[in-house]
Amino acid sequence: MNLVLVMMLTLKAGPEGFFGGPVRFAASGDSAEHMVLVVQTEDGQDLGFAQRDGAEFVFLAPAMKPNEEKKLKLSPAKNPPTRVLLTLADHKIPVVIDGVPFTAYHFGPDLPKPFLHPVLLEGEHRLTRAYPIEDLPYETKEMRDHRHHVSWWVAQDEVNDGRFWMVEEGHGWQKTREILEVVSGPVFGKFRAMNDWVQGDKRVVQEEREYVFYVTEGPDRLTDSRVTFTATDGDVTFHDTKEGGVCSFRMNPLIDEKRGGGKMANSNGKVGEAECWGKAADWCDYSGNLNGQNVGIAVMDNPANFRHPTHWHIRGYGLYSTSVFGLKSFGEAESGEYTLPNGQELTFRYRVFMHKGDTQEAKVAEHYSAYSTPPAATVH
Questions:
Q1: In which band, very low, low, confident or very high, does the pLDDT at 1 lie, cut at 50, 70 and 90?
Q2: CATH fold of 84-372, please?
């Protein structure tokens, strides 16, 4: 007789409840050695899978009422499906979810910095601008400004003596030294890249970048990003400038505020560039009507991040970024300059929610609550 060890997962929601979404938990024992576990209710109803991510498992948990407790069964999965597929070839990592293209990571040696492009809903709704990566006829000459705005990227100007925002003469480079990991699976797919930020022939800072792309039931897309800076070659000073974004986007001009009639909103109930630019907020959302359908991108600042809630460099012409080090640049009294001592690390985490509907229809605030206060998870 083959015995299968079944573990129990207990989820406990807080006083605000839980909207649903990724939950992480640690497990031990024989079942924990598997890459994928089946998650079931106590009476045997299937709820999906939990997929290993390092020392933890990730499960897309259902909604829970305030202070509700759920007890779930975990057991090894047999032949789980690959719903999020990542492949690596020719300096590119395409991401396909349930057979539908979502985005691709580009890191060719001739690129000043890596980026994700295109960013799609339902494989067709382009949420970010094509220029300067593609030449699409609906993007007029007026829409082709700021060629350093490459869809979805990471950058920060004025790091030590390096310049890593614009791509003018003498700019710094973000060089991908190694792709550390590429994972596909039934719950998420992910990759990790090690990048060197180089000015001239000198590395200024090392940066490890990770994206975790989750399965979603429906057209919306959910991604967690992590960026870790390490001072490997001496102290690293991030100077006070608005020109930065550890998580940066350039919106499709058909849905930006200036030309496309789009709308930006933040967690403080403010709307429009005049009320959102340079302000600190837990999250921002940028949405508009594309092909007759309201769509948008929400970026959520992790509560554990340095200087949470972050300031936002968000513009009517479509730039949209988390600007952590720009304080005086946004009118604050104190400088945002920060020095990372040699040998130390600084990590930033964000959740990115690509959605149908406007800010209210997509329930961005509820998604942020699920991100910031997930249920407690214990295994026994």
A1: very low
A2: Beta-galactosidase; Chain A, domain 5 (2.70.98)
